[in-house]
## 1
Amino acid sequence: MAKNTLLHIIAIGLLLAACVRIPGQHGTAGNYNGPGASNTECFSEDSILAYNTPAAAQQIGGLNSRGFRVLNWNSYKGSNKIWQEDLERLSSLSDLVLLQEGYLTDDLQDLLNKKQYNWDIATAFAYNDIYAGVLTASRIKPDFLCSFRAPEPLSGIPKTVLITRYPLSGTDEYLVIANIHMINFSLDPSDYRAQLKKTAEVISQHRGPLIITGDFNSWNTERMKILADIIQELGAQEVVFDTDHRATFMGQRVDHIFYRKLVPLEALTEKVRTSDHNPMLVTFRLADDA
């Protein structure tokens, strides 16, 4: 039954592939004057992540190192009519909003701009001339970002990874965040492993506080093992939810938040009807030994 379900989903994915436009050159779009990103910048020898340069001592204007809230949600392209109401409510007290299947409609841009978020989207494709991909929004601007994409082996529609960096106020530390949407429609684990390995290659250059979050499409034990091994190599651990409403497929959780050199103060999930995934909300502080 599970195999038939997966084949059905693959067939739908192939049909959707005929309706989308994939940009020839990958990059990001945002609402502020900041750094851009291309396929190559994540892996440049000149990447500022490679130098691990500490921030200015006791810097001002970063994320609050004593407590900041992260919202992660696969928003199902905002296709539900009342989805925006959920996002407005969930983001009201969030310092960082990380979306997978973010669909950059005028309504979404208006909401994020009204709440004074600085946002970037790593474009995977355009549907009806509206860009879709992973989107990261923050109360402050990142001082570094890069992104890359990994095509679905069957449909060719890419999944994207967006990596951003933020100073933490009152410290000389930076927080790096990887917002990930993993490939889905592949029975070959090597494609899944390759996308995760590329992500780890970039963020392993950073030795400080780290969040790795997103829709990992970790729907079988083999994928879960690949994910667990790479997370362990990065010295990170998974957020545990006492009441866990995260989406499952084939008996496995597919959405995760991993962290390093941080302390979770509160971790919540919430049931919604406006997406096939439920949002995760976690409040972190900087670890004392970071």
Note: The chain has one domain: 2-286.
## 2
Amino acid sequence: MPSPVFSAAQTAAPDQLALPQHIPLVAALRDGLVESVHYGSAIALAADGSVAAAAGDPLTPFYPRSALKPLQAVAMVRAGLELPADLLALAAASHSGAAVHRDGALRILELHGLAPTDLENSTDLPYGTTEREDWLRNGGSATRITQNCSGKHAAMAATCAINGWPLQGYLDPSHPLQQLVARTVVDLTGEEPAGVSTDGCGTPLFALTLRGMARAFGRIAQAAARHDGDTFDSTNAEAAVGLAMQRHPHMVAGEGRDVTELMRLLPGAVAKDGFEGVQLVGLGDGSAVAVKISDGGDRARMPATVRLLEALGVDSEPLGGIATAPVLGGGHQVGQLLATDFLNTQSTPDNEAL
């Protein structure tokens, strides 16, 4: 596996950069005029895994960022991690840092005789605006528990404790935990990573394609839909993670977050976002969609995602509140963010070629 350590030799000259062939996915309109355009790539897989729709450059590897968390959670359950459903959802979360999230990360640690000092993630203030303001107002500072990936890291430390693996260095790519995660990623996506880096929280991060990530989310959502009962073990890890996320969407993100709202509004969906404009959604029949916004613009994720879901036959009317976003002027709406007709452009790849 490639080393995630950066080297200046990895930096290409400007004229040698291999730029993805993204296309316009979302436009910001101000009083009827296109003010800004977000480029990106997208793909929708049918229930049988075939490509139902695609746009841009969906086979060029990218970093899924936190959208990788459900796959990491599946790996941990396969390794014997057993948690209440709300805490398992937190293990796959980029949480807002509300009290329920902070307390949940602490509960995961306490259940396994661990403490915050056992975590190796970076420190940060709560991710949510309200949560961050409340935390600072009460004299709080950046900690590992308030960092949005603390649920995942608490679960990683717990998985190490369960298996007798060293706690120190659990983020090293050569650690047994990360080796298991790497194998699970290959299994769920059906592809070998094109490279490995380090995510913002310190976890190994794999370069994958939109198609591979969509395939993984389809598997997780389908396993959840097919599971009968509330008993889970290492043999049905995908179902355990998918159902936990569906039943506790507020733990996956937080109140007011679009990912939480999508799972509430679309029964059977398993959804996760990632920094730099990444969005994944798996559906109960095994179909799935994946979006990457090229400029990392977070506001463009959901409009493009809802347009893809429509291509799969999903009724988008209940999703209207997250399918667009207002453009403001003087505190009043003067426009909106809209998905382009990106599935019907000359730049859309031939699905047969994918």
Note: The longest strand covers residues 33-45.
## 3
Amino acid sequence: MLRNLDPIYMLLSIPGLLLGFVLHEFAHAKMSDALGDPTPRSQGRITLDPRSHIDIIGFIVMLIAGFGWAKPVMTNPRFYKKPRRDDILVSIAGPLMNLLIAVVFYGLTKILLLSNILNNNIGKNVASLLVITAGINVVLFVLNMIPFPMFDGYHVISNLFNTWRYRFFNLLEQYGMFIFILLAVSGMLGKIISPVVNVVNNFLINLILY
């Protein structure tokens, strides 16, 4: 996962986390707005101002523990022409934005590699910042696509399969927060997520950097 208490790494992580959190929530808000829901706009979420999207506690927890949260975008599917389809589009907009950020920043790293700027310390530091930002957003992409309550992936699953019909999912929604905290604190969450993060990250690195 993202957890790394090295002070330099944590410092270099801040821009990537800010960018990832802000653009993730902005993507949700913009997509919902484009599909006819006035709620995000009425709440001032159609903006790139970090103050509108960042939950300071969630940001600090993410920086230290490797999982966290931003201010969730409130939406109202009743305004959508096709509620289930459009709610899926809104749900995946955030994670796909994180994936796009990762692609862009690995692309910028490739440009640095081709320009031979990495021969000096400044170039190496910039490259480190770019790679860390890309890696963080891969983590955010995978984390948010978990088919678990509170995450975007669960909204996709619930819209596709009408999960309210099944007792298992009802119980999962009821106790989801407790289960997630238990998994995170015990370290199991990292063990579950890390292999997926590595697969996605390695795929992008091999695709773009090599």
Note: The radius of gyration is 18 Å.
